[in-house]
UniProtKB/TrEMBL annotation:
SUPFAM superfamilies: vWA-like. Residues 44-246 form the DUF58 domain. PANTHER family: BLL2464 PROTEIN, DUF58 DOMAIN-CONTAINING PROTEIN. It holds the Pfam family DUF58. Gene3D superfamilies: von Willebrand factor, type A domain. This is Uncharacterized protein (DUF58 family). It comes from the Bacteria.
Length: 287
């Protein structure tokens, strides 16, 4: 349970460690003092009853049939966007991915950064609207706790296009996913960088992703497409599978390095605190 007091105490310990490692001024490193003479466009938010209808962006509505309103601020500050893969292939890793996302969001809210969280699958689903401040910690953790698997396979490119339409403002985007995407990851990552966002990939995999323990005649069924296939797995096929996964993961790592995108891999046998601590010691999400 992400809202359990014991879990929140673990998050608080991580936040105190983050302040110590990063010098106690996490926000100041990214905060800008730039101020406009008037009201400056900042971001989008989902339209809700009572909002000024004149702020609705009809261009976005025409494209995605989603009512979004424009938000304005006088001061430009850091925004953290967490994109959590909620596709069916993440089911075995979902709780672990949520813990990692919870830790990053907790640190962001406590350092007064602006935070927004989305679910990724075949479309982009808002999980936590852009908010800021320590009083938003519990609503954030509750929204993450209630997030469920949806859609078919993850289409990072389609989600990135919708993200582009919602958020033109420069921010830090962290994608939490296994990155085992049928359509690949390069176009999606490229789109996320298009508007000068800083991008970070937190890849979560489990033992079943990395190794094939099955042998003999088996029927494999894709958890996302439902497609089934009867196959015979010998030690040779099992080895070829493991080699293919290793090459895929190495390609993700090298692509991130070429593009200046941060990348770290985590598996559920590692406590989430260790992963976040390692990430902080490397300098945080900023590459």
């Amino acid at each position: 349970m992400l809202t359990d007091p014991a879990f929140i105490r673990r998050l608080d310990s991580l936040y105190l460690l983050a302040r110590k490692i990063l010098g106690g001024s996490l926000q100041a490193d990214r905060r800008s003092n730039k101020k406009g003479a008037g009201i400056t466009f900042a971001d989008y938010a989902q339209y809700s009853l009572g909002d000024d209808y004149r702020s609705i962006d009809w261009r976005v509505y025409a494209k995605f049939e989603s009512l979004l309103i424009k938000l304005f601020e006088l001061e430009e500050d850091a925004t953290i966007y967490l994109l959590l893969d909620c596709s069916p292939s993440m089911l075995s890793k979902q709780e672990y991915a949520k813990q990692l996302t919870a830790a990053l969001g907790y640190i962001a809210l406590n350092t007064l950064d602006r935070l927004a969280v989305y679910g990724l699958a075949d479309k982009l689903l808002p999980l936590f609207e852009p908010s800021r401040g320590r009083n938003q910690v519990l609503p954030f953790l509750k929204s993450l706790e209630l997030a469920t698997s949806f859609g078919g396979g993850t289409d990072l490119s389609a989600c990135a296009r919708e993200f582009e339409a919602r958020h033109r403002r420069k921010g830090l985007v962290c994608v939490v996913s296994d990155f085992l995407l049928p359509g690949g990851f390069e176009e999606g990552l490229s789109r996320l960088q298009w508007h000068k966002h800083e991008v970070f990939c937190l890849q979560t995999l489990d033992a079943n992703d990395l190794h094939c323990e099955w042998k003999g005649d088996v029927t494999l069924e894709c958890v996302e497409s439902g497609q089934a296939q009867r196959v015979t797995i010998s030690p040779r096929e099992a080895k070829l599978y493991e080699q293919a996964v290793a090459e895929w993961n190495e390609n993700l790592k090298s692509t991130c390095a070429k593009r200046g995108i941060g990348h770290i891999r985590a598996t559920p046998d590692q406590p989430f605190e260790e992963v976040i601590t390692d990430l902080l010691r490397r300098g945080g999400l900023v590459t």
